Amino acid sequence: MIVAGCDVGSLTAKAVIMQDGTIIGTGVTRSGAVAEQSANAAMAQALTQAGLALSAIEYCVGTGYGRKKIAFGDAVESEIACHAKGAVWQAPAVRMLVDIGGQDAKAIKFDSNGNVLRYSYNDKCASGTGRFLEVIADALEIDVEALGPLSRQSTEHLTLSNQCVVFAETEILSLVSEGKEVADIVKALHYAVARRAAAMARSLGVEGEVAMTGGVALNAGMFDALGAALGTVLTRVPHPQLNGALGAALFAVDAVGAGAPGAASAART
Predict the structure, then answer these.
(1) Confidence tier at 205 by pLDDT (50, 70, 90)
(2) Fold of 1-79+242-269
């Protein structure tokens, strides 16, 4: 059985191909203005890695903002359900995840089968998202990938008082003009984002192991900050950025097992 999941988010598109319960191909690309093209690009990467043609995919489930624009998809599932399913598959003991994406953040609580029990979602304010980190990285004139290593070099505890992106950027530039070290500013930035995400998680009741997913989970400083804000040691999953696409692929496994026909099969041949 060869299936796939495709997660088209606001900033990145991800694809996962699975064969008999094993991941054999993955793809991650920056999302463009056209969701269908972003999905195609991510899937092309995954197919190349797997050494397959698109026609080999028996069933594909789409998720994310652009899920209805995936031409090769057979079905769609909510990103909340896909993230829960992907997290339990990657780390069976996890019962909650905090996902910080490009332009939203969510906390999801689920059972041992990945069934969603409760969730909290923020897509109204950029201050708790990866976009906030990108804006501040630009203001500091550093690569966003450098934020994690930099924060771990911090020696002074600073606190950002502003949650609004615009005011926080002004506050950070003021700290720079005061001669504060960039490493200390970046760590304060991470903790500001973490406090907002942790508040969502605590509103659901934090129980059991907690994982962090989304592309921001690849930022070691952000991972540390969220764990500290929650007062727990976060569980690391092998593929945090691919978690939604992985969950979609697992829904595809279920669909094939239940005998669902691939509605887009003709388009893939």
Answers:
(1) very high
(2) Nucleotidyltransferase; domain 5 (3.30.420)
